[in-house]
Amino acid sequence: MGDVNECVGPLHPCSHICSNTVGSYTCSCHAGFQLAPNHRECTAVKPCQISCGGGQCYIDPSGKERCMCDVGYRKTPGPLDECLDIQECVDQADMCREHAHSLCIEDEGKYACTCSHGYKLNPDGMSCSDVDECHEEGKAYKHKCDVASTTCVNTVGNYSCTCKDGFIQKNFFSCEDIDECAVRTHGCARHTAKCVNLPGSYECRCRNGYVGDGKTCMDVNECLDSKANTCSKEEICVNLQPLYECICKPGFKRHPVTHKCEDVNECVSPLLNKCSYASGCVNTYGSFHCSCQDGAVLANDGVTCVITNPCRNSATAASCKQLCLNVNGTDVCMCTYPLDNQCRGEVSATIHQLLHSHATIHQLLHSQER
What we know:
By secondary structure, this protein is mainly beta. It has helices at residues 180-183, 314-319, 341-351, 359-369, and strands at 17-21, 24-28, 33-35, 42-44, 55-59, 65-69, 73-75, 83-85, 102-107, 110-115, 119-121, 128-130, 150-155, 158-163, 167-169, 175-177, 193-198, 201-206, 210-212, 217-219, 235-239, 244-248, 252-254, 261-263, 281-284, 287-290, 296-298, 305-307, 323-327, 330-334. It is 9% helix and 34% strand.
């Protein structure tokens, strides 16, 4: 920065003569005056009594009382020897007008320069320079942009508040958030992710049951990881999109109250098992198996009984409409599913003859009768 000439313009510090020096200045006085202790003002060597207004009375070498005007004052024309204020701003005698954006302000015996809005006075007291409101720390010039939604952009003599990404102009100083989720300007996966609006932005989050970056979401197969699903040992995990479903395994059914999968007793109805005759079904947990009474064995298909000990009485065998086998020496007609009326009649007729026979036969016939 170059030297400031304090002797030029409104910064003039001396009441009479100012001489600029590098980095400073010196004051001196006209003839008949001497420098005051403050080294700026001048006082008359021989004071006198006439009123000079904006100046001082002194006695010149001829002995005449005269007025010496201070800087910023001039003598009145005519016989009156009086100093009047120079209207620099009115008379266009100021040096402010020589500089862009500099304005003159009149004061008694002097004037000052000020600057237009958006500018500040330079150290020379006359010229103005642009104020960078975006980086100015002082309260007088600091910008009023909303820092959360805008960015301050300095312009010549002013500044503007530019919206940050994700915001739209609300007024000169602030912007309001754009809800990308509401206006559908987001890029989230359409069905497998949800859009979450954030101040000035948004976020794509995969829905439950999916993984990914929100732009692309892939289904999670919870059934591949036992820790990722809550299915019990009585249930089968079925993967869905999204999430999963627990369904009862074959041999189980959902309880209407507890909603747990409970064992189905397939032996209570011939519609639930394939055993070849009435008493041959044995329920197990989640399943069943078929068995045969004495005198027959289970075939390889697991459901059919093959007679190994047929009836010995040919008359009994002929009368049996379905099966006839010998159980512990007694010929018995056995019914296979489905039970028809004739078979039920034959079994009922035999019940009374076998009431005291082997307990297994009694249970067999009794269950068939039911």
